[in-house]
Design goal:
- This protein has no helices and 26 strands.
- It is rod-shaped and about 180 Å long.
Length: about 325
Amino acid sequence: AKATLENKYLGVVTVTKAVSGAELPDDFYITTSYDPNLRFDLSNAEKDANEELIVPYTWKIEDVVCGTPITFTEHNIQIDGYKLTVNSEVVTADTAETAANWKESTAKATLENKYLGVVTVTKSVSGAELPDDFYITTSYDANLRFDLSNAQKNEKNEVIKPYTWKIENVVVGTPITFTEHNIQVDGYKLTVGSDVVTADEATKAATWSGSTASTDFVNKYEELGSVTVTKSVAGASLPNDFYITTDYNSELRFDLSNATGTNPYSWTIENVVVDTPIIFTEHNIQIDGYKLRVNSEVVTAATATAAAEWVDGAASASLTNEYLGEVIVTKSVSG
């Protein structure tokens, strides 16, 4: 007679599925070498107490003889336009496989899918040349540094404009910012996009659309010059309440207390974008009993204007006031 005692020690096999950069395709599923009838998808993934899917997605096979070799294969994993890595390996097929690893009474297998895209930053510039020490850094990788030496080139080995740099194999949706450095040019006003920038750097965030992200720096340099208005007066002293305003800046007010020189008096506005139209208006210029000419024109109003004219990066305007009186000659004769 024979008696056989066959002890089978059973354990649990768990497979988890992590995904980043995109949503899993609707027809995604997992099969296993352990049982061809088993099929795992999001409809039968484990849930928490609130009936929410556990992330990473999780499935279990109970009562498996410990040490049984088991592999899992995921299907329908590619998404058009995206690059895919599974467990850090680039995958071009529409399936990927991984094996469960036993440790005592449990075995685990992991499938980590990362959907990757491309991030592009471009740089446009007008009005001046970029400083030689200009460069761009990114929050994505502190070791990356972009400058004109590594900007992309065309088939003729010419630098593409606008200047362009790319970061490949970035998990789609990753927040990324870029910062350009050493962007100021002496004697120029700088706008980046629509914002005036006075610092020596500017930062922009990349925006994702599908499997690509992009941002652009559009730097506009405008040459700066000075604008001077002079005031000459003859025939009388200027009224005490005389002053000059300008349409360039409504907060500016010129009077004799802040003038340079004396008859002609002058005032200067620095750092004005060259060729900006500017008009000056003088106020409270009439004096009772006097006839007034401003720049040779008779003026009866209490104000007069003059436009600045630009020449070689500088502009000037003048207001010459002549106060005129009457000379009366009388002739008496007798005899």
